[in-house]
Amino acid sequence: MTRKVIVDTDTGIDDALALLFLTAQPEVHLLGVTAVYGNCVIDDAVRNIGTVLGVAGHPLVPVAKGADGPLEAEAHIAHYVHGHDGLGDVRLDRHEPAVLLAESAAEYLVDMARANPGEIDLLTLGPLTNIALALRVEPDLLTLFRSITIMGGSGPFPEVGRSDMFDANIQNDPVAAAAVFAAPATRRLMVGVNATATVITDEAFVETLSEAGTPTSDFAASILAFYLDFYKLAFGRRVSPVHDGLAAALMLHPEWMTQSVTGPVNITDDGFTVRARVMQTASGAPVAWEIDPTPDTIAATVIDTDAFLPAFLDALISGAPTA
Ligand SMILES: [Ca+2]
């Protein structure tokens, strides 16, 4: 079965890998890509999409430019994570998309959803600003899409004494996130940092990519090296979580999510960090306050890493299937 997919991305390093993974899947028809600020500034996000689509062998996929900052407050650009250009500062030959649409990302999302009701899977890999802007135009946007898969959020509350990784996509635009998690949706899947933090690539993974020597694996290895250098300060070793690649994979393969929880998601701000959480404790009990009863979101909690990682590696090596 063909899967029609639109990706909204702030095209940093793990976003690039997610796009390479998707374009390597024979069943995926990538209809378009929308750009948002986040891992880098918006113009770099657009340029990085053009560059990655070129490497992936899909240079003619349409691209729409979106928001350059959150609905409220200032953008925080993650240069220290993804390099100044968003792709680890290793490419000198980045280029604009061959097909850059005149309409905005939000307009494109509304038009595509209305023209293809129930047919398109939407994958979001950055702050949710473009989706929130589209919801202002079309409040039923997420019921017109076949599904929305969100890289972002933190799952249910953790066990006492444990904490989750930084939830950048939610922290960057909590107002937009609140709108997206409150909207009616056909199927809404949260692939949060609670899940992505458990799936890592390491130096051996990068070495296997380098040794394969294909256009996509060489590119993936070069940008992943930068990412591993950032995360060494978090873990003391050169590894990185597969945030966006895992979200792309779970959109296509929900069976690689061996456990999940389902319930309303609210935005929490403890004064230190902002997150999107399923309003449940780690043991599934209700939280200790009155919640906003938003419609259900499925949140991934346990991943079949043994199924996902080899498929991810294979896709980054093989690249797009030749017709
Ligand atoms: Ca991203």
Automatic annotation (TrEMBL):
GO MF term (any one): hydrolase activity
Question: Where does the Inosine/uridine-preferring nucleoside hydrolase domain lie?
Answer: 5-308
Q: Which PANTHER family match?
A: INOSINE-URIDINE PREFERRING NUCLEOSIDE HYDROLASE, URIDINE NUCLEOSIDASE
Q: Write down the superkingdom of origin.
A: Bacteria
Classification via InterPro entries: Inosine/uridine_hydrolase_dom, IUNH, Ribo_hydro-like
Keywords, ordered alphabetically: Glycosidase, Hydrolase
> Any idea what this protein is called?
Nucleoside hydrolase
**Can the keyword Secreted be found in this entry's annotation?**
no
Pfam entry (one): IU_nuc_hydro
